[in-house]
Amino acid sequence: MKTSVAVIGAGPAGLTAGYLLAKNEVRVTILETDPVYVGGISRTTRYKGFHFDIGGHRFFSKSKAVDDLWNEILPDDMLERPRSSRIFYDKKFFAYPLEPFEALRKLGLFRSAACVLSWLKARLFPIANPRNFEEWVSNQFGRRLFKTFFRSYTEKVWGMDCREISADWAAQRIKGLSLGSAIRNALFPPRDQSKVIKTLLHSFRYPRKGPGMMWEAAAQKMQAMGGELLLGCTVTGCAYDERTEKWTVHFRDRDGGGQTLEAEHVISSAPMRELIRGLAPAVPERVREAAESLKYRDFLTVMLVVRADDAFADNWIYIHDPSVKVGRIQNFRSWSPEMVPEPDKACYGLEYFCFEHDGLWDSRDEELIELAKRELGQIGLARAGDVVDGCVVRQKKAYPVYDDDYARHVATIRTELDQHYPNLHLVGRNGMHKYNNQDHAMMTAMLCVENILAEEKLYDLWQVNGDAEYHEAGAAEAEPEHGTAIRLVPMRAAATPELASEQTG
After folding, report:
1. What DSSP string describes 196-245?
2. Which terminus of the chain has fewer Cβ atoms in its 10 Å neighbourhood, N or C?
3. Positive or negative CA dihedral for 454, 456, 460, 461?
4. Domains in the chain, ordered, with CATH?
């Protein structure tokens, strides 16, 4: 096949596309800014033998096609891990997902009664057509539980008032979960894991040395099949030539030199705002303004090595205490014992949500490590004197922001690209400005490859839902001819993406 494809970004979407294209003997080149790691936000960073995630990334999908591809790429290194997480609130630890009877008991009689009455009121008199996160969650849990278990953490994550966050995001991340469903699950737990709301799962799969192991294997196998991966290369622009019907991708190599790559197709998982800035011919002013209006949330992880046994067995703990800046704490041994090489040491990741170049982001690493040590002690999970080492990793544009206007801006951009930029394909979380997990990102790439191989638009990638399923308007099933088999199903009545605070993939 003579088709050539340039892929921007070596995260789950970019590497899935690259792997499947190379498997089908398509000439493919992936350009990745990071000079060392692949996997994007799903990479695994290494420090003195310790492995840690940028966030935590569970491997679970309701799509058999995604599961099959994981098994194909990494057949012998996946562990089945128990899921355990809690909320730290009011100096107490609450199981998460919420166990209603435990939560009500720990809140006390008065607050518990107020929460139940508030939920009943929400069921009887729901807010019609909720427009923001606060209204949507209050409908599902009542205002009392919203204020107790949702507001402080969500505003810490996003750096904005819950009334400024679109209800679209709540519906996407929390759909299917409410106080009623949590109570039903506690009393009558489903036996079939595939029918469980994602945030209520009791176990998940996980590569034995972190999620980066999956994507490093994908990169190696892609290269073995003839695909090319260029690390340390930052794309600066993409130019389309109507006469030749080809794209020229401009990028800086790891030495800072300007380079170009010619391709018939461009697959972009880069942040939509940055892609639009570098397009030629340039987009109209209204489209440029729409792109510049898109917002992103950044975050950083402070990894601490602690001289002690693990203080807690959870995979992660959400910190709802406004007196500390940390938002979530990971325990990497609970993700996989192989992440921590020394049995007498614990390894924790303290996550701080911020904006690039705000005060937290621009703090020196030494200051951030000292902050993390103090806050770990303040929460009661370790003494500052037991911390023996640490490092800091910053992650730009970790989460696309769903504010009031994001959907309108994305629609404006989509319309322009569809009409005037042939063979430019957007995939993945930042590429599509859709906050979903790595299985969703993978599915958009898998269907994109099918479109390229078929030389026609078989699938609308924007119809992939939060469960990495395709919302098909026609036949009940469709089987692509190429690559990994993908069985597509119509949209079901109750898609169930993860809970808002489940930013784990």
Report:
1. S-GGG-SEEEEETT-THHHHHHHHHHHHHTT-EEEET-EEEEEEEETTTT
2. N
3. positive
4. 4-77+210-294+403-463 (3.50.50.60), 98-200 (no CATH), 296-400 (3.90.660.20)
CA triplet 244, 249, 250: central angle to 5 degrees? 130
Report which of residues 29 and 172 the model is more confident about: 29
Torsion sign, CA atoms 228, 233, 239, 241: negative
Which of 107, 178, 118, 172 has its CA nearest to residue 144? 118
pLDDT digits (tens, 9 = 90+) for 253-270: 999 999 999 999 999 999
**Helix (H/G/I), strand (E/B), else coil: 299:** strand
Cis peptide before 100 (omega within 30 of 0): no
Q: What is the pLDDT of residues 184-219, one digit of tens each?
A: 555 445 555 555 445 556 789 999 999 999 999 999
Distances (CA, A) of 44 to 19, 54, 486: 19, 7, 28
- What's the token pair of residue 176? 């299917």
Give me the helices (H) in 241-319, please: 272-277, 285-292
Instruction: State how far Cα 359 lies from the chain centre.
Output: 24
Q: Binning pLDDT at 50, 70 and 90, where does residue 490 land? A: very low
CA torsion sign, 267 to 269 to 272 to 277? negative
Nearest residue to 275 (alpha-carbon basis) of 8, 6, 5: 8
Q: Which amino acid, one-letter code, is at 364?
A: R
The letter for the amino acid at 304 is: L
Of 169-183, 305-319, 351-365, 461-475, the range with the lowest mean pLDDT is 169-183
Give CA–CA dist 498/197, Å, rounded: 7
The Cα–Cα gap between 324 and 505 comes to: 24
CB 488 within 8 Å of CB 472: yes
